[in-house]
Automatic annotation (TrEMBL):
EC number: 4.1.99.17
This protein's name: Phosphomethylpyrimidine synthase
Any one GO CC term of the record: cytosol
Organism for this UniProt entry: Slackia faecicanis
Top-level EC class: lyase
Cofactor: [4Fe-4S] cluster
Listed PANTHER family: PHOSPHOMETHYLPYRIMIDINE SYNTHASE, CHLOROPLASTIC (PTHR30557:SF1), THIAMINE BIOSYNTHESIS PROTEIN THIC (PTHR30557)
Length: 433
């Protein structure tokens, strides 16, 4: 039997090569994974035209995955630099890369990215519409938007963010909620402006069935974007955000009926105390579809350090049910990130994801930590470097100072507790002189 999408295959009892890859990588039974894909609680974004994809799964019982955003803007147009960011993202284990380029003709870069990357690739077609079509926003038609989605699907994009939930009903809730930061989603703000200028319904909502047919044809996963995600703590969990989430839940079931895989996007900025409840609300309203969160950022006052505020929120979110973390860099709210910013953001997000996987009891998650603990107990520096999430940084720190005993570090030196206990438990004398 032939199949169009991973979900269609899963519903028919077919185990695809991508399912086998994910099951092997995750250490789970492939039939368990197939059942989750069939139910929509796990997704395997895998466009049939992304030839060198190493499939990854997102969702129930799977490791928390990391996405890296990159791409040019009107002010920063260095594609070579963006490819360096791709290299960093892949080096530090990101499972997904989103090309958020929003200036000029971006298809050459996107095609090169898809050809290069074994990580899944995502885009926001709305960003590309103006440059791709060479039309100003108010003159773009609903058919035009669909043409851009089709172009991205044909090129091999594995998932697309579509802000289909921002319909007239959701906008009414937003307008009445009196937000401090209005709409901070770039795609959401563009859709809102288009709707206001044209007087039309959201084209992605009005023509949702046509959109799904395009995605089904190439097996593109729809990442239902949260246009009304909070952009500051004051706007978190308001009527606009929750109202849109209800719409996303309804759109989820419509996609599943057509065998299109779904992820749901979430906040945003949010107080630490609200995160767990938001994860539960999403899972309830969106039928346990995989949840993809930006942060959440747990405070608004740390520009230059938002990779840290994001990692704090991301760890809590993932431990409470989120499945996919979009990294945040130190440059968030300030500028297009540099290559070093990307590295800092990926590592912070991976730490958050791994900490959450340990808390959730994901099989094998703590094995990594146990290997590091064993290496530290032996004072085996090469083995510690092997397990370090950033080997180069760990080695550079150790090499930057010279302890009297090279088996220790300059923090404790002769008073190293590990050294002391190893000697004492071996019946050896402990001298501090």
């Amino acid at each position: 039997m032939t199949y169009s999408t991973q979900m269609e295959a899963a519903k028919a009892g077919i185990v695809t090569p991508e399912m086998k890859t994910v099951a092997h990588d995750e250490g789970i039974d492939v039939e368990v994974l197939r059942a989750r894909v069939a139910a929509g609680t796990a997704a395997i974004p895998a466009n049939r035209n992304h030839r060198n994809l190493h499939a990854s799964g997102v969702g129930e019982g799977l490791r928390t995955k990391i996405n890296v955003n990159l791409g040019i803007s009107g002010d920063m147009r260095d594609y070579d630099c963006e490819m360096q960011k791709v290299d960093v993202a892949l080096k530090f284990g990101a499972e997904a890369i989103m090309d958020l380029s929003n200036y000029g003709k971006t298809h050459d870069f996107r095609r090169a990215l898809i050809e290069k990357s074994p990580a899944m690739i995502g885009t926001v077609p709305m960003y590309d519409a103006v440059g791709y079509l060479e039309k100003d926003l108010a003159h773009i038609t609903a058919d035009d938007f669909m043409d851009v989605v089709r172009a991205h699907a044909e090129e091999g994009v594995d998932f697309v963010t579509i802000h289909a939930g921002l319909n007239r009903k959701a906008i009414d809730s937003f307008k009445r909620s009196g937000r401090k930061m209005n709409i901070v989603s770039r795609g959401g703000s563009l859709i809102y402006a288009w709707m206001e200028m044209t007087g039309n319904e959201n084209p992605f909502f009005e023509h949702y069935d046509e959109l799904l047919e395009i995605l089904r044809e190439y097996d593109v996963t729809i990442s239902l974007g949260d246009a009304l995600r909070p952009g500051c703590l004051a706007d978190a969990t308001d009527a606009g955000q929750v109202g849109e989430l209800i719409e996303l839940g309804l759109l989820t079931t419509r996609a599943w009926e057509r065998d299109v895989q779904v992820m749901i996007e979430g906040p945003g900025h949010m107080a630490l105390s609200e995160i767990a409840a938001n994860m539960q609300i999403e899972k309830r309203l969106c039928h346990n579809a995989p949840f993809y969160v930006l942060g959440p950022l747990v405070t608004d006052i740390a520009p230059g350090y938002d990779h840290i505020t994001s990692a704090i929120g991301g760890a809590v979110a993932a431990a409470s049910g989120a499945d996919f973390l979009c990294y945040v860099t130190p440059a968030e709210h300030l500028r297009l990130p540099s290559v070093e910013d990307v590295k800092e953001g990926v590592i912070a997000s991976r730490i958050a994801a791994h900490a959450a996987d340990i808390a959730k009891g994901i099989p094998g998650a703590r094995d990594w930590d146990d290997r590091m603990a064993a290496a530290r107990q032996r004072l085996d520096w090469p083995a510690m470097f092997d397990e370090a999430i950033d080997r180069e940084k760990a080695e550079a720190y150790v090499a930057s100072t010279k302890p009297a005993d090279p088996r220790t570090c300059t923090m404790c030196g002769a008073m190293c507790s590990v050294r002391t206990m190893n000697r004492a438990m071996n019946g050896e004398g402990v001298s501090l002189l």
